[in-house]
Amino acid sequence: MSETPVTVILLAAQRTGVVNPLAERAGVSHKALVPICERPLIAHVMEILTTLPAIEAIRVVLEPDGQEAVAPVLEEFRDRGVPIELVDSDKNIVESVIHATKGEDRAFIVTTADNVLLTHEGFEQARATLATSDGIISLTTRERVWAVHRQGQRGFYDFKDAGYASCNLFGLNGRKSLAAAEVFREGGQFMSNKGRMIRAFGLWNIILMATRRITLREGMERLSKRFGLELKPVVFEDGALAVDVDNARTYAVAEWVLGRRLGMDIAKPVIVPDA
C-alpha cells in the first residue's frame, strides 16, 4: 500500500435554513450529528480517518452556524496526532472543496461525513491510485452493490462494460487538478443542465457514454484528454462503499452493514423497491 501523505477534505455541511429530514427525525441540528450504531455519522468517518497513516490534516468543511454543534464530536479525535481544522463551507459544494484546498499544491482526498461505511482498505486503494494520477473518482459495480443489499444504491452510470455506482471518495493531486473541478463552479443541478454538461465533458463524449459505446476506463481516458490531466477510476470490490447515508432507506442499509462490522445484532432491512 502507498503511504503518500494526503490531506483529507471532509464535507459535512448542510444547506443553510434547510432542516435535514434525518436530522429532524433524530432530533439533532445537523445531519453530521445523526446517530447510527450509537455514534454520530461524522464520528464513524473520523474513526477511520484518524487511524490511517500519513494523514497530514483533516479539514472539516461546515457552515459557520453549525460548527459549534459539531466541534465537541471532533474533540474526541484531536489527541490522535492528526491536525483537525474547521473550514467554512460555501453554498456551492465545489467552491467549498476549492476553498478547503487553500490553493496548496498537494494531494487531497475528499469524502463526506455520511460516508460511514468507509474502510481503511478502500481509502488506501484510493490513495495508491491518486499517487500515480492527477485525480481520481471511486466507483463500484451494480453487482457488487446488489451483493450487499439490493436497495443499497439505486443510481448507476451504465457503460459498455458494466453499470457503476459512485462512491463518496475523490482525489485531487496538486493544484493543477483543480482545473477539472472548475467546470462545476456554475452551481445548480449539473446533471439536469444539458448546456453545462456539454461545456464540461464535450458533446461527443456524452453521446458515447449515454449510448454505452465505451467502457468506464475509455471514458476516463477521454475525459483525461479533454482536461489535460491524468484522471483514473478506482473500482472497489466492496459494494458497501457506494452506500452513504442519504435518506431513511440508505440509513437502514448502512446501519445494518455497519452494525455487522461492529458486532451488533441488527436485522437486515426489508425495503420495498420503488414502483
From TrEMBL:
UniProt keywords, alphabetically: Magnesium, Transferase
Give the domain of life.
Bacteria
InterPro entries reported for this sequence: MobA-like_NTP_Trfase, Nucleotide-diphossugar_trans
Q: Which parts pass through the membrane?
A: none
Q: Which residue range or ranges hold the MobA-like NTP transferase domain?
A: 23-145
GO MF: nucleotidyltransferase activity
What is this protein called in UniProt? Nucleotidyl transferase
Which organism does this sequence originate in?
Aurantiacibacter aquimixticola
Taxonomic lineage: Bacteria, Pseudomonadati, Pseudomonadota, Alphaproteobacteria, Sphingomonadales
